[in-house]
Specification:
6 strands; about 190 residues; alpha+beta; Jelly Rolls; 9 helices
Length: about 190
């Protein structure tokens, strides 16, 4: 069950076979069914999840009951409420399963122990954090300065098969547009291609 994780790690750093063998006990493999919650708003995020198979998403529900999708996490992606995970504060987000999933969970204690036992993983985690910050900055800039079509094309570039894997209303929520606007954008792109 660790194949995707090792492929992901291998793109950033090199682990020896011994380090790979040391790494696996720090994670808890878990299977989730579609529509199950990994985290619910108000609970403390006790795990960071690495997606080996399937699709997860994090989202918030506002006072009017509208969902605001924060992140989609397909295979090879990490997902958590980092603020809750690091501070022990109640989560602001829900994380649920959009497709049956196999994930690897790691607690904060296990993460610290892993970084002590396998020092090169510290570099891997730093690279992940840097990439996460860059991604968040790009998402904010895109949301503020791009039109709906540019945002949609940007998401398709980052997640090429997302439109086939998630419902249109969730994708529209992630883009910060209405489902009707997304339909219009998709029709226009089809017409232009």
């Amino acid at each position: 069950m660790f194949e995707v994780l090792f492929e992901h790690i291998d793109k950033k750093i090199t682990l020896t076979k011994e380090e790979e063998n040391k790494l696996t006990p720090f994670f808890i493999p878990k299977k989730y069914r579609k529509r199950q919650y990994v985290l619910q708003q108000g609970d403390i995020c006790k795990y960071i999840a690495f997606v080996e198979k399937g699709m997860l998403r994090s989202f918030q529900v506002d006072d009017k009951g509208n969902e605001h999708v924060i992140q989609f996490a397909p295979e090879g992606w990490w997902i958590a409420d980092n603020y809750s995970f690091l501070t022990g504060s109640p989560s602001s987000y829900d994380i649920d399963v959009l497709e049956d999933a196999e994930v690897l969970l790691i607690t904060q204690t296990a993460l610290e122990e892993m970084l002590q036992a396998i020092p090169v993983m510290e570099r891997y985690m730093r690279i992940l954090m840097q990439n996460s910050l860059i991604s968040m900055q790009n998402r904010i800039a895109c949301t503020l300065g791009s039109n709906a079509e540019e945002r949609y094309q940007g998401v398709l570039k980052a997640l090429p098969n997302i439109a086939q894997r998630v419902p249109q209303h969730m994708l529209a929520s992630f883009l910060g547009i209405t489902p009707e606007t997304l339909s219009r954008v998709r029709r226009q792109l089809l017409k232009n291609s």
